[in-house]
Amino acid sequence: MDSLSKLQAVVFGASGYSGSELLALLHNHAYIQVTHAFASERSSAMPWARIAPQLAGTSDLVIEPFTGDTDVLANVDLAFLALPHEASAELAPKLLAQGIAVFDLSGAYRFADADLFAQTYGFVHPFPGLLAQATYCLAEHLNANSFQDIALYSIPGCYPTAATLALAPVCESAFLDPATVPVVTAISGVSGAGRAANLRTSFCEVSVQAYGVFNHRHRPEIARNLATDVVFTPILGPYPRGIVATCVAQLRGGVSAEMVLDAFQKAYADQPFVRLVHAPPAVQHVAYTPFCDLYVAVEGQQLIVIAALDNLLKGAASQAVQVANIVYGLPATTGFERFLGGVSARAAAVVDSGAAQHD
Ligand SMILES: NC(=O)c1ccc[n+]([C@@H]2O[C@H](COP(=O)([O-])OP(=O)(O)OC[C@H]3O[C@@H](n4cnc5c(N)ncnc54)[C@H](OP(=O)(O)O)[C@@H]3O)[C@@H](O)[C@H]2O)c1
Questions:
Q1: Is residue 234 in contact with ligand 1, taking CB distance under 6 Å?
Q2: Most buried in the list 57, 116, 244, 287, measured by CB within 10 Å?
Q3: Domains and CATH numbers, the chain
Q4: How does pLDDT run across 69-81, given as a tens digit for each residue?
């Protein structure tokens, strides 16, 4: 694609955490240009630089209230929806009807089954017929050649991205003991709950506390991705952003550490945003980056994989841009150049400094 004829994009939810990160990534994208950025109808028009000065740089982009009028989107090619699930569910078909490809960061189109959707998200989907038409897009698991007529791309949740990247290589290789269930315990920073004020996430209330025990909405998504039931316990942590997911599983007899490591190396050899690291990753290794760091340890038949990622980037906005790059046949690292310069040098240091923990 000629970078002079950029794809025209709109970002909905641009005043929120993930939406603002989308604007930052697309601000420097060689092939995609944001022509409209919207907040809800409740908000007044505001310069992006005022609400996200750390991200906006020199941009003079204005975020406008969205009135529901999609006629203003006449020349738009693609839309990113960083909206509450209900709002995404309602808006997506209107955009699709105008020929606009939709990249939805919410949970509105993550399940093909309407009953499972209602059970998981707590409301009846307004367009159940559309659920089966959406493609669930974990970037590392997409086939670049399978996007002929699809126009509704559902971006995974942040915890499912971490847990799936951590366990898919062993699940797909049938390395886990089928009589056991993987256990995923993941801590997330407070931005996972979005930008709106909320007592549970206010400064004086946040501690370290599990929530959604046995019933978090990301559990069925992880289980579907891995084709196995899973025990999932999320924990809210007292810091702004980043997830560390500790995934514990039992290997089948006969599966060795070498076989496990080989599966991970094969799965991620060509993936620029997944790094196999030699020491347990920390939030600060991945926060503000599009990377998922994976640490793999095996003792006998016990497997521990620890995944770390930024919930707003690899868990939301950067994954959406990765997916758009794949869908439009663009180079995988387009829009991520600034990370691949500075941050990868730091990442290399992380890998080299850790004592090897696995065979
Ligand atoms: N936060 C994460 O770590 C994360 C990770 C993965 C996926 N997600 C998903 O991504 C979506 C956005 O999450 P977020 O955390 O970025 O949210 P957020 O910070 O709370 O921002 C929500 C955005 O949506 C806008 N909005 C709210 N209701 C709307 C409506 N009815 N119509 C149009 N716009 C509306 C808000 O505008 P106003 O400012 O005007 O209210 C704001 O721009 C959610 O579905 C979330 O589940 C979030």
A1: no
A2: 244
A3: 7-156+315-339 (3.40.50.720), 158-311 (3.30.360.10)
A4: 998 999 999 999 9
